Amino acid sequence: xxxxxxxxxxxxxxxxxxxxxxxxxxxxxxxxxxxxxxxxxxxxxxxxxxxxxxxxxxxxxxxxxxxxxxxxxxxxxxxxxxxxxxxxxxxxxxxxxxxxxxxxxxxxxxxxxxxxxxxxxxxxxxxxxxxxxxxxxxxxxxxxxxxxxxxxxxxxxxxxxxxxxxxxxxxxxxxxxxxxxxxxxxxxxxxxxxxx
Length: 196
Description:
The protein has helices at residues 3-39, 82-97, 114-123, 137-142, 172-195, and strands spanning 58-61, 71-77, 103-109, 129-132, 150-154, 160-165. It is α/β, with parallel strands linked by helices.
């Protein structure tokens, strides 16, 4: 065997080893990233909403809220988010129109500056309970919220029954249509669980 053939065999062998290492690394990266995506997946209907974190958040206004045995409308927003600001008056009106014995509207701001939040709420006469999700502990890390506004409708049992992304024109008719569609979705989910 000539020196040229040996040299070529060494190059092919080295290239094959490099390719094998690269392939193993790519496979490992793909597996790890799919695991991380699963842990960061957005909660869906039927998942438990982390209500206990509300007690750990900074209360901005109206800290004495009663969430026991109520359907909750929980809106994530920020003062720098125009769609969030635009839907706030509708949420305020909805909070006073809905039956207070059955429903509670809650705002959770992701702003870092609590004074900006307070100023906005005061200026726009927003009276429903609001909390600060400083450092986005709940919104990004637990709920995988990537864009605002996002609103969760949470059952009296603490289960997510709907997740609504983007600006909405909140009024009683819109809320009732969402709730009706959500109830039908939950009934179908329960039927599917029982039959499966």
